[in-house]
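Budget justification aside, the reviewers requested a transparent look at the raw inputs and outputs of the sequence design task funded under Objective 1. We therefore reproduce one unedited record. The lines immediately below are the structure tokens for a 500-residue chain.
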């Protein structure tokens, strides 16, 4: 085997080494799991964390590669590496949050942690896919695991209800996405994203099959990001799922869905952005408005955060509507980074309030938290203020970059709608703060966080991320902008894969 062939093999396998690590780690958990009691499953969580650490290190080697692999099915660029690292970090925080939760609730640890890793595997596959079928496979790998995790509290009717709704609606959305992919293939003759972009740039933009395919794909992605009117599953699934799984859906699923959504629409379908940007304008405005208005009347913190996630999907779609403005892509990646840490922290605090067999997920359950646990209350207040867009936290800076990009693209009225919605959101976010600091009655008693070090570390990491990303945005924004630029500059070269 000569030097050129060795080099080809190296670069062909490099993009999937993190994926292989995730798959092997998940299978290891499944093999070791039957030997471990459900009440003592923390060791399985440690195996999952080690798996994520290995995948993190391997992902670092994929930076600055910028080449295609496996016949053009995968791309190793900074865009994929950025999302992979974010997915791995978010999954690691979720696993840390779950260590005590899984044991306390008596959940099946082997299945739980294996499904978490398999779902993260699908998320990473979506971020690195350069082929519509690979995006579909990644989405289904992620979704099937999440469907099972959403109904993991088998004796809880709410968990069963939320999982069934999620599964049934998800199955319909999958059909729309797959049919859309078929129509795009019929219109362009390929399922590879780079040739699709080249075909559209050459003048195939007016093909009716293509426009119908884009509409069906938009429905499929809209469901995964919980955009209106494809959001109906969100509050029930969020409320019924185990709280760490709810955090995983709110953060991991949204990150992965936008990774695929942006690569397909903003990058590959950029030449026909005039055909879909107007539709996204309308969906973004409706999504952020319905999400914020409905959140105003929620009494359950998980349902409130579900509608908050819907509203945030609207803000992110504002960035997509600003395509092909280059600044919009970097702003969206930065926004997702801050959104991840803020939401992970908020759900970690919800977990901290819960006791064995007692779920405290009503907003009134936070009453008096500042008197009994001032540190925990301060952390929750920080997360709520960041979600509300209060400076100088990550949420504010993310909205600033996102709204600025949209203004640069001329979407003045959509930015006005977004700003008004952001003002509305202040009410329901600060409502939690008022309950903690200003309401009389209700003495919250929880297990000391010192006895749950993994959960404490999760909250500390989320607090640090929320503050640092907001106070020092430039390095993170530069990395986000460079990652998006690498996707836009994707080289039209032959794949270097040895396996075709």
């Amino acid at each position: 085997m000569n030097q050129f062939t060795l080099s080809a093999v190296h670069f062909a396998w490099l993009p999937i080494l993190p994926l292989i690590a995730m798959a092997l780690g998940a299978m290891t958990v499944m093999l070791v799991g039957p030997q471990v009691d459900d009440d003592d499953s923390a060791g399985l969580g440690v195996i999952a964390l080690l798996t994520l650490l290995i995948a993190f290190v391997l992902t670092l080697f994929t930076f600055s590669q910028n080449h295609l692999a496996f016949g053009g099915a995968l791309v190793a660029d900074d865009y994929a590496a950025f999302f992979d690292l974010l997915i791995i970090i978010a999954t690691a925080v979720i696993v840390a949050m779950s260590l005590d939760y899984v044991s306390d609730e008596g959940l099946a640890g082997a299945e739980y942690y294996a499904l978490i890793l398999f779902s993260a595997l699908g998320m990473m596959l979506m971020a690195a896919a350069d082929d519509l079928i690979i995006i579909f496979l990644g989405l289904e790998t992620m979704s099937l695991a999440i469907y099972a995790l959403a109904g993991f509290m088998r004796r809880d009717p709410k968990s069963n209800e939320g999982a069934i709704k999620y599964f049934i609606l998800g199955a319909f959305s999958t059909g729309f996405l797959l049919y859309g992919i078929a129509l795009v293939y019929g219109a362009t003759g390929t399922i590879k994203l780079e040739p699709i972009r080249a075909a559209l740039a050459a003048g195939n933009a007016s093909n009716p099959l293509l426009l119908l395919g884009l509409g069906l794909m938009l429905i499929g992605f809209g469901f995964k990001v919980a955009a209106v009117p494809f959001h109906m599953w969100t509050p029930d699934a969020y409320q019924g799922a185990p709280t760490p799984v709810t955090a995983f859906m709110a953060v991991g699923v949204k990150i992965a869905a936008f990774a695929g959504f942006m690569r397909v629409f903003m990058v590959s379908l950029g030449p026909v952005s005039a055909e879909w940007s107007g539709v996204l304008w309308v969906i973004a405005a409706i999504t952020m408005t319905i999400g914020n208005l409905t959140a105003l009347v929620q009494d359950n913190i998980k349902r409130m955060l579900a509608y908050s996630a819907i509203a945030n999907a609207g803000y992110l779609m504002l960035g997509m509507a600003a395509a092909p403005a280059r600044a919009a892509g970097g702003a969206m990646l930065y926004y997702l980074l801050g959104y991840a840490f803020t939401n992970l922290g908020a759900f970690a605090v919800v977990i901290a309030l819960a006791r064995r067999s007692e779920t405290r997920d009503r907003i009134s359950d936070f009453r008096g938290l500042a008197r009994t646990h001032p540190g925990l209350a301060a952390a929750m207040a920080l997360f709520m203020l960041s979600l509300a867009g209060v400076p100088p936290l990550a949420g504010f800076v993310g909205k600033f970059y996102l709204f600025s990009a949209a203004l640069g693209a001329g979407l003045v009225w959509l930015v006005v709608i977004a700003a008004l919605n952001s003002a509305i959101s202040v009410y329901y976010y600060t409502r939690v703060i008022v309950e903690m600091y200003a309401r009389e009655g209700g003495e919250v008693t929880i297990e000391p966080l010192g006895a749950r070090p993994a959960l404490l570390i999760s909250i500390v990491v989320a607090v640090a991320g929320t503050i640092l990303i907001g106070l020092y945005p430039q390095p993170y924004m530069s990395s986000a902008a460079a990652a998006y630029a690498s996707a836009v500059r994707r080289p039209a070269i032959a794949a270097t894969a040895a396996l075709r």
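Residues 3-488 form one domain. The beta strands are 67-69, 74-76. Computational costs for records of this kind are itemized in the attached budget.
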